[in-house]
Amino acid sequence: MPQIQNPPSPIVPKLEGLHLFHFDGAPCAQRVRFALGEKGLKRGREVPFDFVESAACTGEPGRWVSRKVSLVRKDHMTQEYAQIHPDLVVPALVHDGKLWLESLDIIEYLDDAFGGDPLLPKEEPLRTRTLDLANQARALYVSLRYVTFRWGLGLLAKLNSGEQQKLKELVGKGANKENLATFYDGFSNNRIRDSVFEEHLQNCSWHSFS
Ligand SMILES: N[C@@H](CCC(=O)N[C@@H](CS)C(=O)NCC(=O)O)C(=O)O
User: Fold this and answer.
1) Which of 20, 85, 90 to mutate to test the pocket of ligand 1 (most atoms within 8 A of CB)?
2) Is 123 in contact with 177 (CB distance < 8 Å)?
3) For 117-175, what is each residue's pLDDT tens digit?
4) Confidence of residue 8 (pLDDT cuts 50, 70, 90)
5) What lines the ligand 1 site, CB under 6 Å?
6) How far apart, in whole angstroms, are the C-alpha atoms of residue 174 and residue 88?
7) Over pLDDT 90: what percentage of the chain?
8) Which residues, other chains included, contact 40 with Cβ-Cβ below 8 Å and sequence gap of 6+?
9) CA-proximal residue: ligand 1, atom 6 (nearest)
10) What angle do CA 203, 163, 80 make, to 5 degrees?
11) Which of 22, 28, 188 best tests ligand 1's pocket when mutated (most atoms within 8 Å of CB)?
12) What is the pLDDT of residues 38-57, one digit of tens each?
């Protein structure tokens, strides 16, 4: 997915330099941090994700501003974050007022925009083959959510009814075929059958890249 055009967030156009909206414990954000590191870009100052006081909006040469979106505090389930990422997930990247979503798209963008060793092959057919493999991995993220919630986070990740209602209202405009509200509704109310979890586990365990 290319750069996101006209995001509704008033925060995005105010940001100069690189700002990563992320959470330390989220693997989808971690892979973007790896890519930033490979490009020689260091983690810079920590700023609350929605903080727009002018010093916080300025970039730092050779560094990225860390805007933590706590998945524990449910920062991602707020109106402010929904205007940045309509699917209410991390990561999101802003570079000089322009927004990118989806970790693999962000990595591709960083690879093109910054120097250093390329992360993706430049030459064909290797480039297309690599992107194809990455897209196969991308398709697994829904299954990974089922597996990590069922066998990792467990009860800790359930939402109460007030939180579920708020989430339904926020996620209405999301683009994902399976949005967070649908998932949390099933998960928090024990409406997901074991066979569904097991099917997702199979996807992750036996998925073979072709
Ligand atoms: N395809 C997306 C998936 C993003 C995603 O699902 N992120 C997870 C963390 S790895 C998230 O924010 N989940 C929110 C939640 O679990 O409530 C990407 O790779 O950027």
Assistant:
1) 90
2) no
3) 899 999 999 999 999 988 888 888 889 999 999 999 998 899 999 999 999 888 765 55
4) very high
5) 26-28, 71, 76, 89-91, 102-103, 138, 141, 180
6) 8
7) 77
8) 62, 114, 115, 116
9) 89
10) 90
11) 28
12) 999 999 999 999 999 988 99
- 23 CA → ligand 1 middle, Å: 10
Domain ranges of the chain: 12-113, 139-206
The residue whose CA has the least distance to atom 12 of ligand 1 is 89
Strand order in the sheet with 92-95: 42-48, 63-68, 18-22, 92-95, 98-101
Average pLDDT, the chain: 92
Give the total residue count for the chain: 210
pLDDT number for residue 175? 55
pLDDT of residue 161: 94
* 3-state DSSP assignment of residue 121: coil
Superfamily name and number for 12-113: Glutaredoxin (3.40.30.10)
Among protein residues, the one whose CA lies closest to atom 19 of ligand 1: 103
